[in-house]
Amino acid sequence: MTRRDGTVEPRLPRRRVDVPADLSRAVEHARILRGAGDPTGAARVLDRAFDAEGVRARTVSEPLRFRALVLRADLALQLHDDVAAARFLDGAEALPLLADALTALDDEVHRAEELREQLAAD
Fold first, then answer.
1. Contact 73, 118 (CB under 8 A)
2. Is 89 exposed, middle or buried (0-12, 13-18, 19+ CB in 10 A)?
3. Is 6 among the domain residues?
4. DSSP state of 6
5. pTM, two decimal places
6. pLDDT, tens digit only, all 122 positions of the chain
7. Is 102 within the bounds of a domain?
8. Could you give the CA distance from residue 85 to residue 75 in angstroms, rounded to a whole number?
9. Which of the 8 DSSP states describes residue 111?
10. 30, 48, 95, 107: least CB-packed within 10 angstroms?
11. What CA dihedral angle connects 53, 25, 19 and 56, to 10 degrees?
């Protein structure tokens, strides 16, 4: 960049820093992508959010993490990856959920049971 007095001011290269994906936004984005017929893209969005969440203190609630894990297991089954689906379901079932949270997550709990049955049938 040239200053008014004719001297050149050096510019430092800018480094782009990706902000880690927020898990709640990632879940919503993944649902949209899944609905649009892009399970691979939806899985990638959740994987990036899980990776980002792993490096920092876990600040999301267990119900949100449960939703994300069940959604990711569902996507893994759509992508014919039974091993990953089982791993994500195991992670969801290992969460210490309270009875109140289970009531709020009734749809996801039911879906996790369906996915487990589907895995057992394969």
1. no
2. buried
3. no
4. S
5. 0.69
6. 556 666 666 665 554 434 445 899 999 999 999 999 999 999 999 999 988 877 555 677 888 888 999 999 999 999 999 999 999 999 888 877 665 666 777 888 888 999 999 999 87
7. yes
8. 8
9. H
10. 107
11. -20
